[in-house]
Design goal:
16 helices, about 35% helix, 16 strands, 5-stranded parallel β-sheet, about 20% strand, alpha/beta
Length: about 525
């Protein structure tokens, strides 16, 4: 009798577990479907468009099928690889946007952090140090990844040389290269930087092709051993102000012989800045630094006597293309002050004006792409230039976009049906969202802010000359690691929006991480800045 009761209880428990399993596997997808369908029935748009890949196969799939000079089996194999990647991307997108994901992350994050585990892109080191996972992965990346970057650098140099402009390539050391000891105990006391595989061969290959490179690894290692100060922030991906200034001074010494003596009058004013590190913020997007204290640094803010803070000069003969290593201490939205970044410090040490095109992330391509767009619109940003300095994080050698980009000045840009307000003017219009560029998930990138590119069509306003026109609009899609209302827009939405000239806001917002439209023709349109008007 007792055994019978035990068996009955086991059956009851198994039945309960089975029912719970079936309910959990059924309720979650049903709930997700209801949440995804909600924007179609209510005015509030809760999420951006998901899985655009479902609309059509990507062009790469068609290219694999129709690739010339490839056998039938090779083309089928390539197409299968593309299809598997597409399936993986869709599954990853569904996983990342599931309503259950943030709930589970919030519940488990304290336990993970206590165990020394971070997040997908944040690694917890010793003594309160944090590291960016792609930086660590870069140090073990295979050799074959570097070939494309060499050819692209050579092509970029060739295009600049055709206009009598020199190129100086400046790969920027990543944190675990200079500060590995807080991640791996065995590297304490190391006097040489940790370098990616074949990095030395990459430098040598560029040298053989006539490319000038400023390698700052030795500068940072020398400063670290000489001052016993860490060149990098503990909870951030970037260097400290003093390390950056040492790089700017060494860079100025490198290029000074190429120019006449500078005559600019610049002053530096010290300022104390406190901020959470970008990796600390990635551990818990939208909240404070997850128990990590704010870091405090002393920056040297650059000023022009009688004219306020330092500004880049588009007529300068030196142009800096850079990423967030140039932006930190310069772009106020990054939280580390303003007017004290790499361009400002280089301008100070050279005592001459500097032009710059700097944007967070994608250092391998962003600066070249923006430069190409300006030239295509008929704006010769290379006029009068003698030197282009191309700064990018070393991780770009493994994960960057190294597609060649054409630098061609368009003397007679095509008349496009796109509108943009003149400087100082604002327009209030309504329009239909024709497309919106990709928007990262909060916490998936080491930058708290993001700008999306929006193609606005069928514009209507009180001004008849604007009606039925189009606009290429930059809009803030993420702020402080939180999606904005613009991130929730869907293709086909009609919105009310205030448009203003991009040039009026470019100094403040131009350096923020930005995704560009997939349609290359939109890149030729003059962009404007847009802010949604809520009813």
């Amino acid at each position: 009798m007792k055994n019978s009761n035990i068996i009955d209880r086991l059956h009851q428990r198994n039945l309960i577990l089975t029912v719970f399993f079936l309910l959990s596997t059924g309720v979650i997808p049903v709930a997700q479907t209801i949440l995804d369908s909600r924007p179609f029935f209510v005015r509030d748009r809760m999420q951006p468009v998901q899985c655009p890949e479902l609309v059509a196969l990507p062009q790469t799939f068609n290219d694999s099928i129709n690739k010339p000079n490839a056998t039938l089996f090779k083309r089928i194999g390539n197409a299968c690889d593309d299809l598997l990647k597409l399936i993986h991307d869709i599954e990853h997108g569904l996983e990342e946007t599931s309503f259950l994901r943030p709930v589970m992350v919030k519940l488990l994050a304290p336990l993970y952090h206590r165990l020394g585990l971070g997040s997908e892109n944040a690694l917890i080191g010793r003594n309160g140090w944090l590291y960016y996972q792609p930086d660590v992965a870069c140090l073990t990346n295979p050799v074959s990844e570097l070939a494309d970057s060499i050819e692209t650098v050579v092509d970029f140099n060739r295009q600049l040389a055709a206009r009598g402009i020199s190129l100086l390539v400046m790969p920027t050391p990543i944190k675990p290269s200079i500060e590995p000891e807080f991640l791996w105990k065995g590297y304490a006391g190391r006097n040489e930087p940790l370098l990616p595989p074949a990095y030395a061969a990459w430098l040598q290959a560029l040298g053989h092709r006539g490319i000038r490179v400023f390698d700052s690894h030795p500068v940072l290692m020398k400063r670290k051993s000489g001052t016993h100060e860490s060149p990098y922030l503990k909870t951030d991906t970037h260097w400290t102000p003093r390390a950056m200034e040492a790089i700017a001074s060494a860079l100025a010494d490198e290029i000074r012989p190429d120019f006449d003596e500078g005559s600019a009058v610049l002053e530096r004013q010290g300022r104390t800045v406190s901020s959470p590190g970008d990796i600390a913020l990635m551990l818990n997007p939208g909240n404070s630094s997850v128990g990590y204290p704010l870091e405090t640094v002393e920056i040297n803010e650059m000023r022009i006597p009688g004219h306020g803070i330092w500004r880049e000069s588009k007529s300068a003969d030196v142009l800096l293309l850079g990423d967030s290593f140039s932006n930190i201490y310069s772009l106020e939205g990054m939280g580390w002050g303003r007017s004290a970044g790499l361009a400002e410090q280089l301008s100070y040490y050279l005592q001459r004006p500097i032009d710059r095109i700097v944007q967070n992330d994608a250092g391998a391509s962003a600066g070249r792409r923006i430069l190409s767009q300006e030239l295509a619109r008929g704006k010769d940003r290379l006029a009068g230039k003698k030197l282009v300095i191309w700064q990018f994080a070393v991780r770009e050698l493994s994960f960057g976009d190294w597609q060649p980009i054409e630098l061609k000045l368009n003397d007679s840009p095509a008349d496009m049906p796109f509108i943009a307000p003149d400087s100082g003017k604002n327009w209030t219009v309504s329009g239909v969202i024709e497309s919106i560029s990709a928007i990262p998930l909060p916490g998936s990138v080491p930058y708290p802010d993001h700008i999306a590119s929006v193609h606005l069509s069928d514009i209507r306003s009180g001004n008849p000359s604007l009606n039925f026109k189009q606009a290429m609009v930059y809009m803030q899609s993420m702020k402080d690691n939180q999606w904005t209302a613009a991130a929730r827009l869907r293709t086909g939405d009609r919105v009310c929006i205030q448009l203003s000239a991009w040039v009026d806001i470019e100094d403040r917002m131009g350096g923020i991480n930005r995704s560009e439209p997939e349609d290359g023709a939109l890149l030729l349109a003059e962009p404007c800045w847009g802010e949604l008007i809520h009813e």
